Please model this.
Amino acid sequence: MARGCRGDSRLGGTINAEPSTFVVILDTEHPNHVLGWLSLRSQGLEVRQVPTTAEVDRTGQLTAANAATFAPYIDERTKAIGLSSIMFHSGQWNDVKDICDTYRPQRIHVLADLTQQVSFTHVDVQALGVSAAAFSLHRGLNCPTGSGVLYVNQQVLEGLNPEPPMTTFDSLAERRADFTVDVADPILLQNNAQRFDHSNQNPSAVAAAEVHLTFYLDTMGPKTVESYLFSLGDTLRDECKQLRIKIIGPQSRKEHAPHLYILDINGEG
Model:
């Protein structure tokens, strides 16, 4: 997860909206993800939602999103697809790689929220092929709220508007030691995602993230953690089946996160 920076995890602000372009998202996306895109409508961006809830209500089956899920809603005006790799409400594990493999060659950006995935499963953003990805530190990394990480593919970064929506001291590649800024100084930005850094980091969260990531990566191991969580999930499924309690979301490991299980208990009966 190199070239990351701390900042707002709403990825909408990293893409330059043009008139008559639109982004496609699922109708079950996390509110913070949706609002990030909606805030760009004043700049000419249209937001198109893929309807999935009606089909789930009709069939009772929830499946993970892949490239085919978005196909009916993609055309030559599509600028980007935004989605959570793992959905917060169901544990639905979307096939981000399939979506990237299909649409990135069509010059459609894929922007992923990895908040529900980082530290729970093995993640390789370069292998996924995303244009950009973001996640907060408070979920899987057990850190205080207030900080997040942004990754931007280097080739994508080079094609973006070189000036970020907001420039701060940490955005600069060259900074004066005395923290002063002269109007005659050129603004030379970081050549990575740190150009989007908002500077007001949460020191305790960053320190905690470093400790947790070191232990997670060097001691526990991402694939070991993922396997262990899947085994716990399998046990939970067996127990719930005996109790006739339904688990919301896809049933297969391929389409369901190893750690996030929502029980269908509504208090009736």
The longest helix spans residues 222-243. The chain has eight helices and eight strands.
